[in-house]
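User: Could you check the structure of this?
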Amino acid sequence: MTNIKGAIFDVDGTMLDSMHIWENVAGNYLISQGAVPRPDLNEELSKMGGHQIPAYFRAEYGVTQTEEAIHAGINALLEEFYLNKVQLKVGVVEILETFYNRGIKMCVATATDRSLIEPALQRCGIAKYFGRIFTCPEEHTSKSSPDIYLSAAKFLGTEIADTLVFEDALYAVKSAKNAGFPVVGVYDLSAEDHQDEIRALGGYYVKSLSDFIF
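Assistant: Sure, the predicted structure tokens are below.
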């Protein structure tokens, strides 16, 4: 990996220990609207960008609120956690500092709203390392497509082959890998069942970012 010139970091499950907060939030929101969540709810939502979820709730669960109101309602359930409670995973500061000192340009690619991610990164002291935060809602995409990674690499001005992508979710690892990015699969408990596939696909795999050797 001596030619690496850029790095794109996912946030939830990769840098922030936050995936557990998502386990019940969508279901709780649906229950508040009188809907009964199906067992595959979180699996289905994991493949979507945040901008797609309100339309899905309206179409599949009959939620009558506007898409804007649904979006705001979900974020309201998450806001306190992201603004005041979420913590960094092990090794995050160390790897970012190492990359910064070596002149590797970095940015963020996340499926979560900027209004949640940006203050969380600032509070945790790592926002300063990133040239830009790319979000799926703002890019009108999901990580089932490589578009957000391609936009991030274009911003960094680095070739795809020279740009590492750090991800914890299998479907996101697949997207980045299929687009030609070297991918580092990062372990998270939320993706426990997919670790063998992530390890095989990613090319590089770490239990925590403190294990990454550059």
